[in-house]
């Protein structure tokens, strides 16, 4: 079964609102195994609604339309659909009653235009609206099914869950579609894709990469009977993990900071962070996790040399000898914040976020990360391209810092 | 001039991501007076991309496409467009060089598939990508103009602002459309709109509100001869400022942290920050500004009571008497970080971000902000709704902290 989505509303074509309805509809359809090949958006214009509907009916079995069901002049979706299909509009007493009661129970007086919403195409089924006045419309026409729903997300979702999805589910049978996202960090998008190139060709599950700043998400999707789908996803995950090993840091909605937090809690370890170029972002991300005070002891944003010396406790001669952006100072920051706070692990970050401050030896984008723990101190040197910009470099450096922590905690 | 938008990406048809690109494009086009009658969304499928493009070219002068420009097999937009128009793909050395340098400066080795992105239709103009590897493509074909841009919003927006909008603006003739954004913080969206309700009805300039988390943007737009447009924008800005006073913190792309930074620099003052519930976000935002080390002396993320005592220097009896989330502790944090760092101004933030830790006296969303300066110490008590969620409360508290700083620095 193939469906097409038509969003109606001039406000969508002016960019005044983002079409979250279409994403919701697409996702719910995917979950019950209904394919969507096209979405269309049109303004509140009868001719264009007709054009979009004709096109959709020429290539899909089911058409889901949202928007343009209200009481105003602009709201012309139902009339345009009826005209397209050559159906007369008739006054539905049940809908009119519903509207009357809706206003009565709220102690409000309806304007006369509201009853326009009681006009439905002859032969159509009314989809009840528990959450508002405009009814939905369900039309069966020459082998095609058309559902018209309001544009108000809350009302539309009520109709979708209670009426449209059950109706479609009856027709699709047992098939389900499920997805799993594997979250990956520590290498660039193309290097990761190179390592799993052949897997991206396969089906059951299909594997699709999505690049984010500092990480890549692989979405595995399978379709079929529920047990087959689960087996396919498990198989796909195992294939990816075999290739990428601990580049895979999490699944689905898991964030890198959550994984770090879980590892700290599991090992009963505490952490303190001294940040220079990342300016507090690592502390911020770690404390986004509820309950982070159990393992996050302290963060210091030591941006200037003076702050590195005074507040973190870095030996000034190290800065004078090696420069503030150096492996030595990163390690000193990690060690000093660990000692000062009494944490099990100290993380130090120093780098050049730019745009100024770079030179050929130490270009913008150079970052040193260091970890101090019971087993000693280590550092990593990273270079990010200056094109990432100041903010991009800061985000990438924070991501790399959290990933260094993750690898240290899960390997050790 | 009429434009049509085509979003390419199977992830859009599965509802895995919401199509914010299409809304952004529609909004920017509306601002320069370009009409959009239809938007289409298709999956990563050459036949359907072709079908969508043919339809768009049959009814629009300009077609804007986003998505499917990456290095993977799925990314077939450029090839599908070239096939539709009967154009050969040729290898563009300039693009290949850009890609090579992009990887070199990052010290990474590109996979061979990356260079697929250097294939562009013969006769097309390359739209440079400052922010990634995939170039955009600009094609003039039989009286129609086609722009192809990446799906990554950050890259797409760069191309739109720097290339596509200027190119389209040149064609819309002598009439200019200009916008100015007034950025407002310190009150809720509905309170702000209530105060300027009548202004939202006017034209020349039109004034449209956009609510963000913790701030509202008013976009003023005027259309006509350049001098008239500038006069209308100045008039509209004066009207808004008369109503809203210092709720208006900035213009256009100016951020709240930039305004704070400028005020600190103008007054030659330095700052230190002690954060609890905001966990480093205030420090992070302030150090996003290049050159922030001149005024930002130190940030401490003192999440636990121990850290507030040990690292900031808060008197433990204050915490015992009033609780960690109290006016007294916020003021003590501000005063102690100011003294310790030698900064002219100290900012302290403590609150309950939740989801746990609230009680009827001190509910989730309660935040105390305090400022310590040469003239003494003051605090503000704020309550954000628990519905904002942990992350929302943290963002709102950081915004309020920066705003308190701004008002202190600009009023004093």
UniProtKB/TrEMBL annotation, chains A, B:
SMART domains: MoCF_biosynth. It comes from Candidatus Segetimicrobium genomatis. InterPro entries: CinA (IPR050101), CinA-like_C (IPR036653), CinA_C (IPR008136), CinA_KH (IPR041424), Competence-induced_CinA (IPR008135), MoaB/Mog-like_dom_sf (IPR036425), MoaB/Mog_dom (IPR001453). Belongs to the CinA family. It comes from the Bacteria. Transmembrane segments: none annotated. Gene3D superfamilies: 3.30.70.2860, CinA-like, MoaB/Mog-like domain. The lineage of its organism: Bacteria, Bacillati, Candidatus Sysuimicrobiota, Candidatus Sysuimicrobiia, Candidatus Sysuimicrobiales. This is CinA-like protein.
């Amino acid at each position: 079964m193939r469906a097409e989505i038509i969003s109606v509303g001039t406000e969508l074509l002016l960019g005044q609102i983002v079409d979250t309805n279409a994403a919701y509809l697409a996702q719910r359809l995917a979950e019950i195994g209904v394919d969507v090949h096209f979405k269309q958006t049109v303004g509140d214009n009868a001719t264009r609604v007709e054009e979009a509907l004709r096109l959709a009916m020429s290539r899909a079995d089911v058409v889901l339309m949202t928007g343009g069901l209200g009481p105003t002049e602009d709201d012309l979706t139902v009339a345009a659909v009826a005209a397209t299909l050559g159906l007369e509009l008739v006054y539905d007493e049940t809908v009119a009653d519903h509207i009357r009661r809706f206003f009565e129970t709220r102690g409000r007086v309806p304007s006369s235009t509201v009853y326009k919403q009681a006009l439905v195409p002859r032969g159509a089924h009314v989809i009840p609206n528990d959450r508002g006045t405009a009814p939905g419309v369900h039309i069966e026409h020459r082998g095609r099914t058309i559902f018209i729903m309001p544009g108000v997300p809350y009302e539309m979702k009520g109709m979708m869950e209670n009426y449209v999805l059950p109706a479609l589910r009856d027709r699709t049978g047992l098939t389900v579609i499920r997805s799993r996202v594997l979250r990956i960090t520590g290498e660039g998008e193309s290097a990761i894709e190179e390592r799993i190139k052949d897997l991206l060709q396969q089906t059951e599950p299909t594997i699709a990469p999505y690049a984010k700043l500092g990480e890549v998400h692989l979405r595995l999707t399978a379709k079929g009977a529920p047990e087959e789908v689960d087996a396919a996803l498990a198989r796909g995950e195992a294939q990816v993990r075999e290739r990428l090993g601990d580049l895979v840091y999490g699944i689905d909605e898991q964030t890198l900071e959550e994984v770090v937090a879980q590892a700290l809690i599991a090992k009963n370890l505490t952490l303190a962070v001294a940040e220079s170029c990342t300016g507090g972002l690592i502390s911020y991300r770690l404390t986004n996790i509820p309950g982070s005070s159990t393992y996050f002891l302290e963060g210091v944003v030591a941006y200037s040399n003076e702050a590195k010396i005074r507040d973190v406790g870095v030996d000034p001669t190290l800065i004078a000898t090696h420069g503030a952006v150096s492996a030595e100072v990163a390690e000193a920051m990690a060690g000093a914040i660990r000692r000062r706070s009494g944490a099990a692990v100290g993380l130090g970050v120093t780098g050049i976020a730019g745009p100024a401050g770079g030179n050929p030896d130490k270009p913008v984008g150079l970052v040193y990360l260091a970890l101090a723990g019971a087993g000693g101190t280590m550092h990593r040197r990273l270079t990010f391209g200056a094109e990432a910009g100041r903010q991009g470099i800061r985000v990438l450096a924070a991501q790399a810092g959290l990933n260094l922590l993750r690898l240290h905690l899960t390997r050790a």
